[in-house]
Structure formats: C-alpha cells, structure tokens
Design goal:
The complex is a heterodimer. By secondary structure, chain A is of the alpha/beta class. Chain A has a single domain (46-68, 85-252), classed as 3-Layer(aba) Sandwich (Rossmann fold), CATH 3.40.50.300. Helix content of chain A is 34%, strand content 27%. In chain A, β4 and β5 form a beta hairpin. Chain A is globular. Chain B is α+β, with helices and mostly antiparallel strands. Chain B folds into 5 domains: 1-85 and 327-461, no CATH class; 90-272, no CATH class; 463-527; 528-622; 699-931, no CATH class. The chains are: A alpha/beta, B alpha+beta. Chain A binds chain B through residues 60-61, 64-65, 67, 69-70, 89-90, 93-94, 96-98, 101-102, 104, 106, 108-113, 117, 121-122, 124-127, 129-131, 155, 169, 181, and chain B through 455-456, 644, 647-648, 652, 654-655, 658-659, 662-663, 665-666, 970-971, 973-982, 984, 1060-1063, 1065-1066, 1068.
Amino acid sequence: MTTPTGTDGHYPHAAIIEAIDVFKTYDTGRVRVEALRGVSLAIGRGEMVAIMGASGCGKTTLLNCLSGLDVIDSGRVAVDGVDLSTMSDNDKTEYRARRMGFVFQFYNLLPVLSAVENVELPLVVSGVSSRDARKRALQALDTVHLSDWAQHKPAELSGGQRQRVTIARALVNEPAIVWGDEPTGDLDSSNAAEIMDLLVDLNERHAQTFVLVTHDHGVAARTRRIIRMQDGRIVSDEPFGAQPTASAATETI
Amino acid sequence: MDSLFGLSMTTIMIVLVSLLAISLGSVAYVALRNRIFFAMGLRNIPRRTAQTVLIVLGLMLSTLIISAAFGTGDTLNHSISKQAYTLLGHVDVAIEQDNLATAGDSEGATGLDIPSAQYERFRTAVAEAGSSDIDGVLGVRMETVPVTNLDTGLSEPVMTLTGLDAGALAGFPDVLSVRTGETLDVGSLQPQEVYINKSAARELDTSPGDRIRIFVDNKPTEFTIVDVVEDRVLTGVGSESIQQGLVTRLDTLHQVFGHSDLSFIAVSLTGGVRDTLDLTDSVELDLQRLIRQNRLALDISSTKKADVEFAELLGNFMTTFFLLLGLFSIGAGVLLIIMIFVMLAAERKPEMGMARAVGTKRGHLVQTFLSEGMAYNVVAAMVGAGLGVLVAFGMASAMGAIFSSGDFQLSIEPHITPRTLIVSYSLGVVLTFATVTFSSWRVSTLNIVAAIRGTEDDRRPVQQRVTQWRWVLLALPAMAVPPLGLWLLCRKGLGLAWSSWWVLFSIPAFGIPPLGLWLLLRNGFGLPAAWIISWGGLILGALLVVSGMSSDLAFPFALGCSLFAAGAARGLTHFLKLPHRPVFTAAGLALLVTWGLTAGGRIEPLVGVLSGDIEMFFLSGVAMVTASTYVLVYNADVILAGVSRLGDVFGTILPALKTAIAYPLANRFRTGMTVAMISLVVFSLTMMSTMNLNFNELFLADDSRGGWDIVVEENANNPIPDLPARLREAGSTAPDGFRSEGVIGRAEDPYATNEVRQGPDGKFDSYLVIGMDDGFISASNLPVDHHARGFESDAAVREALLTRDDVAVIDAFAIGSGGFSENEYGFSVSGIRERIRVFDPIPLELRDPVSGQTRKITLIGVMGEGASSNFVGLHIPLATYKEVFGDPELSWHYVGLKDSSQSRHVAKAIESTLLTAGVQAESLKARAEADSALFRNFFYLMQGYMGLGLFVGIAAVGVIAFRTVVERRQQIGMLRAIGYKRSTVALSFMLETSFVTLLAIFSGVGLAIWLSYMLITSDEFPEGASYHVPWLQIAFFSAFTYLASLVMTFIPARQAASIPTAEALRYE
C-alpha cells in the first residue's frame, strides 16, 4: 500500500483531496479492466495539478473517482475531509453543485441553452435566485471575456469560446475544486494556450484547486505539479516549478 | 364484403398483393445484390430492444385501424345478411299492389292491399307459366293487434298477426317448431288456433295450450296457442321494431278482420334459403312479364337478393365510414413512421457519415433503412392486422348492443374473411413501405463531414440556375396528368351518377401537376425554392379563391386563401427580406382565422354564400391543426422566456423545467410532428363530443316537443275518435291532468299514398303529409325557423293554419338542413336558403296517387331542427288532408300535461288503460332521451375508434423519450456532474413530455371548441341555439392522453436518471 505524499514529502497547503489505496475495475462481462490499482495521493488546497499518462492509463477514471462522479471498488477518497463513500448520491450531487466545477474536453454544453443559461445552470440547481444566478453568470462570462456572446447558443460559438463558456460554468459557483478532463484537447494550439492562461490566472487569483487530466505536455507545463500514471498506478508525482508564458507554452505544444 | 369504393374486393386484393410483392421483392433484391447493406439494416434491430418494440407498435397502428375498419364492415355485413337469410327463410321475392296503375306519371310505390282476386290471378298465371325456377307462391296478410295472455295476464299493445294461405304453403317450410325443429303445417290449424313466435312467446310468457285474446275494432277474439315457432317474416316479424308475431290460416284472419285482402305475395325460388340469389334477376324479369301480360296491378316490392345486397351496402358503408374516421389516425401513423426514421437516421448519423466516407452511395443507405424498415413492417403489419380484427369484433359487438337498445334488433356475430385479412395486411405493409421509402430517401441526404463530426449540417448553397433537361423531360409528363384528373372528376365523380369516391380519387391527380411544376422549375430550371413557393402559392391561391367564390364552394376558397397566405409569407421573407417569425406567425394565424370563419359561415357577408359538406370537418381540422402547431412551435420560446422571467416561482423544479422546454424547442420538427399528431386526434375527439352534446341539447330542448308531452299512437284496427272520453269511459282519471289535446292524421304507409310537388311543373315525389286538427294547431308551440313573407311570426303562421285551408309548414330536413346530406325521403323544397330566415311563399301541390285527387297549397313556414326531429312531414290542416287523401288511416293523439314532469307516468297509465285498443303511449321526452342515448352511444363508439389515433401520438412520445435518452447521454452526465440529482433528470424528462403533450392537448381542444362554437352559433343552426361544451368528456380523454404519455416516458426517464455519470461523460 502506498501512502499519499506531497510534492516534497509534505503538502504545500492543507489537503483538500485525499485518496488512499483506491481500486477501480470495469467489468463488462466479457472484459475486465483494472483501471485503478491502489492509487493514493493528496492534493492541497489551491494547488494546480496535472495528471498525465498514456491513453487508457486510468487518468480520467481517477478524476471521476476523486470528484465523486464514479464509485470506487475499494480504498478511500476524501474531499475536504469528508469520505465520499459515506455520502449518498444526492449528497454528492449537492456537494458537486456547490463545491466543484467541471471542464470537459468536448465542452458538454447544453446545445439548447444560450451561453448565459448554460453558465447559470449550476447556480439554479443550487437554489440561487434567478436574478442572482443571471447576474453571476454574466459576471462569470465577463471573467472569460465572453460578455458579448452571452445570448448565443453553443453552436454559434467557436471551440475556444465554447470551452471558455465551460470554464465560466465551472467557476460560476466559486467552487473549491475545478476538475478538467483534457480541457484543451479539442482546441488548436493558440486557443489551448489562451485557455491555459485563463486557468492559471484564475488559479492564482482565486486560489481554487485545479486538477487537470491531460496527455499534453504543454498543458502540464503550466501546472505546479505533475502526477504521471501508467496501467492504473501512479508512477511519479513531481513538482513542476516553471511557469512558461503563453507563447512559450505554444512553442512547447 | 365484395366491393369497396365501387371496386371489387378481389380486384383490390390482387392490386394490393401485387404491390406487396413489389415491396417485398425490393427488399429481396437488396438482400441478394447488396447483402452487406441488408445485414446492416437487420443488425440494427436488436441494438435497442425497447425502442424496437416501440417502433413495431408505432408501425402497426395504421394497419390496426385499417383492419378494424374492414373487420367491422365484414362482421356487420355477415350479421345483417345472416339475419336477412334467417328471417326471410324461403321468401325470395315479395310482390305488392302497384300504385302506378292509378297515376301514370307517379314515381310509383307499392304498399296498398292486394285484392284476393289479383292474388288468385297471379297464382294461376305463375302456374300456367310453369317456371321451374319458382317452387312456391304464397298469399300473406299481416295485421297489427293488441294481445293479452289470458293465463298469465301479460299484454302487448302491438303484435303482428300473420295469415298464411294454407293451400299454398308448398315451397315455404318456414314455420318451424322451436321445440322439435320440425316444419309445422299452418293448414292443420283450427279456426281458433294460432302459432306464436319466439319473441312474442317471451314477451307474453306463453307456452302451448295458453289462451290469448286479440282486439279488432275494439272487439275481442280468443285463440289457443298450439306451438311456439321460430321468428321469421312468415311468423310475424313485421319490421325491425315489431318482432313479436302470431301466425294462423289466411281464411281465419280474413274472417276475424272482415275482409279478403292480402298484404303481399311471397314467391319462393327453387332451392334452399341461401342458394337462390342467382335466380333472382331472371325470375324478377319473368314475374314482371307475367304481371304485364295479365294486366295485374302488382309489382315486385323487395327481394331477398336486395336485402342481402343491402347488408353488403351497410357493411361497405361501415368500412368506408370507419376508414374515413380513421384517416386522422392513419395520417398521424404516417407522420409517426416518418418521425421514427428521421430519428433513427439522426442516431446513426456518424455511422452513416463513415459509411459514405468509405464509398457507400446514397442509394445504399436507402437500401439499409429500407431493409430495416421492412423487417419492422412485416411483423408490425401482422400484429396490427390481428389486433385490428379484435378491435373490429369489439366494435361490432358494441354496435349490436347499441342497436339492440333501440328498436332495431340485430344479433352480431364476429366474422372476418381471409380476403379482408390479406387486404388489411397488404395495405398496411404497402402504406408503411411507401412511407419508409420516402423517409429513407429523405434521411439519406447528409453532409459526410458534418455527420462524422456530429456537427450541424451546412446550409446547402443556392444552386445555380442551370437547366437540367432530364428533369424537364420527367416533369412534363407529370404536367399532363391534370386532364386525367379532370376527366375522372367530371366523368366519374360529378358525371352521370354522383360519386364522392371518384371525386376523392381524382383529387390526388390534381396534386401531380404541382409536383410536376415543382420538378420542372426547381430541378429542371434550377429556380430557388422560395421563388417557386411564393409565386406558386400566390397564383394558385388566387385561382382557387376565385374558383371557390364563383362556385360557392367553401373548400377551394379556404384552400386558396391558405396557399395565398403561405405564398405571400414566403415572398415577403425572400424578396423583401422581412423577418421570418412575425411574417410566418401572421400567415399561420391568417390560416386559422380563414378556416375557422369559413367553416362557421362567418366570412359570407364578405364573399357571399360558401357551401361545404362533411369534408370541411376533416379539411378544416387538418388545416387548423397544422396552422396552430406551426404558430405554437414557432413561438413557443415565448413560454421559455416566461418561465425564465418567473424563475423563482417554480422553486427547485426550475432547472428541470427550463431544460424540459428548451429541448423540444431546439428540435422544432420533432416537436411539431408530435404536437400535430396528438393535437389532430384530440381535435377530432373534442369536435365530435361537442357537436354530439349540442345536437343532443338541440333535440332534447323543450321547444322541440312543440308544447306536447305525450304521443298516443292508435292501432289502425282499433280507432279511438275521442281520447279523453275513451279514457274516462275506461275509468281513468288521466284526462284530469291534460292541459291540451290535439290529433294528427296520417297514412299508415305515407310513401305509398302521399305525394307532393313544388310549382306547377315540378315532379311529384313521395312525402309524409300530416293533417292537423284545430286542437293540435292551436295548442302547438312548434318553433318556425323560416317564415314566408306575410307570415313573419310563429303566431302568424299558426293563425293562418287555423283560418285557412291552403297553407302548410314543413320540417327542416325538407330544405336539406340539419345534416351533412340532402333530404333522403324523396321530396325536398328548393328556394329556401338555410341562412336566410325569410322566403317568398312557395306554391306546392298535393296528390293522392291512388285516387288522383290533387290540391294546391302554399308553404308558409319551415320548422326548427329540434322540432323537426319530432314532427317530420308536410303539416296541413286536417280538413285539407281529408279532402285530398280521405280519412286518415292512423290518428296520433298529442297530449300536453299540466305537470310535464309526469309524462312518463301518465303515458304508462294511458297505455295500460287502453291496452285492449293496442295504443302505444309514449312520453315525448323519454322518446327523445332514448333516441339521443342511441346516437350518443354510437358517437362514443366512433370516438373510441378515433381515440385509437391517440395511441399513435402516445407512441410518438415514447419513441422520442427513448431516443432522447440515447441522444443526450453525455449531456445527462454533465448535468449530473454539475449538480442535477437523479430525480431532477427524471423530472426533466417528465416535464418535457408534459410540455409537448399539454401543448398538443390545449391546441386540439382549443381549436375544436372554437370551430364548434363557430358552427353551432352560425346561421345554419336555429336562432338562439345555445352552445355547450362537454367539459367532463374533454377532461377525460385529455387526462387519459396526458397520463398515458407520462406512463410512456416513465421508463426512459428512469433510464436517464440511472445513467452512471462517469460512463455518460465518456459516451460519444
């Protein structure tokens, strides 16, 4: 059994996410895939972490299990000190609505709603009044420089704009943790760099925890810590000090 | 059933089976030549079991409706013809006295008594002719009499006493003992003996040996029952309403009644009961020749063959009636099939894109869909045809029960022919095949890159105007079809014999030229679609409006307005670049208003009289529902904006509500189709319920009884000159409660002895003439809807009837009002328009075709429709009646009571007091209620049948719900990720269904209420007719539709809610 360790043996901040000896297996009847094989880690509050690895190494599964989107077979996942396995589905859902934000590779916006309606959705779900929800959604869109596109539907936006709407949606309820699953995977290099600039800026300004799953070194290079996975296990967990600029990142990419 | 729409069922079957073979052959071709595409199609079927089941259910509904209509026709045809065979037995031809002998230019009718000498001469003539096709000639006399069972004390006011010529019974083994089944010999009866038929024995609780008493001319005669016999025409089944009868020797009957006349002469053809139809035509000719040669005043009045053909006709009528009623549902079913395939295509777009990318042609995609569709189709049509048979049996049984509750006795026996099953199945498969082919062709058009990437299709660039001669060549022959359509319409439809079926058939021919024109202009000359639609709509619309106005027809007028509005809308947006939403919304509203106002006759002050028939019900329904759906779906985002604005009012369901409205709005085609399907059926159901209720209210209204409470119908053999005196004489106090009393006189068979014509040059036609005594005229309060000039009030009309002997009023049915068809009783009055309440007095002439006596009178009023249902006929003063037709054979006494609520009780008291006179007393209110119950139940049956269409709409909701779960899997994952609870996801689905279904229900109900209001309050209905809405019924089927839709959505909603979030997010 491995124990969770920080970048240099201690956490730079108090741990907001803690995983201990997590196992997760997918069994389709014919095929059995051990996606996570005893993963342990801890992520501190305000950290910006990249989880990297080859396709099928289990990084998305780890993100899903840490965020409570998926259930684990054994081990323990605690967020903010609360063991996710003790929470009911509804509790986890409510917790996600209030404390987490998600950014996905394919945006996952509702095509039938406008940008501002997509952004305000988590607030409406959390019971925020319509007026406040709209106000905060517009502010969030302003943060990602999309105020002028608030009434446009996803189909009318470019890929970069859609991902910025997703980021606005992820941030609108001021979550403690933002999860990103290949957040720049569907973008060209210039848009990808812009998105990463935005995420880094938000991380620095709001001290929110960012956990990004990526196979892109350019993206990982913008974070402070890189966790590498292989065959469902963490094979390295290292700090990454450099903070290349957008142009440098573009070159890397 | 042997024919439909004038075409032999065998021909129809051969054509359909050929089309079925072509359909199946097409798929077989795909299977043999392109096995991979055939396999691709079939392997899609087991991918989603629940969806497959739902598709099969959706596809089978059209076949079910078709099969149910055919099955109902078959069952009724079989049951009625069986009843005809059973009741007629060996009576193949009936011969009656001919009136033509007395009035040469008369339309002619039979029905008078046959003197015994004529009978004897006829028998002799037949015997001398020695025809081997005839094995019996029998003289029959029927009299209605009141009967009392002296042993049980039970009585019946009306039974038929039948006298059979004992010496001529050979060839008529129809008097069968119920007990032994053997043929009884009427000739063996003694003068005081009778047989009693089964129905009469049941009513009187008699058995052999019982004594009964009949009254003739108020004098009693007693008989002994010798045996109980089967119900047959020859044992006293006189009509549909009088089944109870006695049978005795003809000479016995003549002795009791003091005359020697006959009612008819029965002729039996050589053979049994069912195998003589083929002989009928030739024997009929022989008999007519014999009658002519011997100068007999006889004529053939009916034949068994005609009765069996009538059964066929009724079966046909029911089939076509239910097919027509089912058109809404069949149409909805076709929409459902199109929608299913559009959705299947949407689901498989990336696969199809990939297939196209690796070299698959568009035709191959069509073949794949066709293979899959036909696999569903072959099974679905089989299930549909089978279930349709069950529905048909259910409907026929219900019909039997409904008719049995009235006067008409009919025992229903489920029956279906293999031919009908083949026709239903083939029609279902062919209809679905055509729809699937069309849908497959439509969905196979895709942009390969967009399909693979799952993005929106690019808009197709406007084609350059390049002439494509192959399209020009294809389109030109299509343009040549109008002459064929016109020929069919004029020659077959409107030609020698009016046939609505040919009109119906020929109209599609007129649909081909527009298609040809479209192909020519769009594909041939490459003109923009908007250009063609706008100019085509404007020009064709204007032509139809002008044509409608010049021919006074509502349909072309309303259709023309619709095309004009659509063309104008397209033109305004295309040429003037006006915004789409206001322009098309305005066009949709214009259509709604046009059809509503046209159907309600409200537009006539502007454009003149426009007449329409039952087609306006169907067409205005389809047009209004289409327009309404368009306007609603186009503007439903207003609802979303409203929901967003109200926001917090909805509390925690707001997020679910927003997505529930947003999703349907994002797919307007799918939503519009579903709304249209449900709305169309709800519209038709609401319309029927509302019209039914309002007709009921109209006919049950107090003034429809003309101020009378009870009608007392005399028995012709026991006249009652003075009803109150006779009642008092019998010790009854009933007359003390009389407020008024009046008498009308009429003939027993008015269509044989009453004739009327309009103007000096008109043709005399049969019509019921009623003679009213002064008591009836002065105490009647019959509402008159149309008044002649100079008689502008009801009081003026009544005064004229009292003081003059040359005036008359007539029922509303005689001017073609009160229904969808013209008066079918023969005579009808022209020159009175339904919507114009005052007319110039119309000269009429009465004639008794037997005596040749004539009399000129003037028509001064037309009764309201409610009253007309109780007082049918041309009403004249009694003195005038006697002058033309002599003393009336029947007198009906009308009684007004001081306390109308006692009408049932008093009627019963009168009937029991005068039982021996055979009077039938009935509360007019009770009679109206019973009649209305009969029609109401039939309406319920029709509604139930039309309600089958609701299942189409409900199936559509289910198909969509299952589909959306698949379609939105990833989005559901995202929603769950950002905080949607399972219950919120499920709720969102339920709310989405609620939104679509309720929109459709409100649209259908609203439109039907509006249209029915326009109709009921139009000039076609009596002045002051109040409007009623059957809210309870509407609430019932609306709630059923809504709840059934929710039930359909429940499983997919649960599926959606239980999708694992992480898995859903991975899903592509």
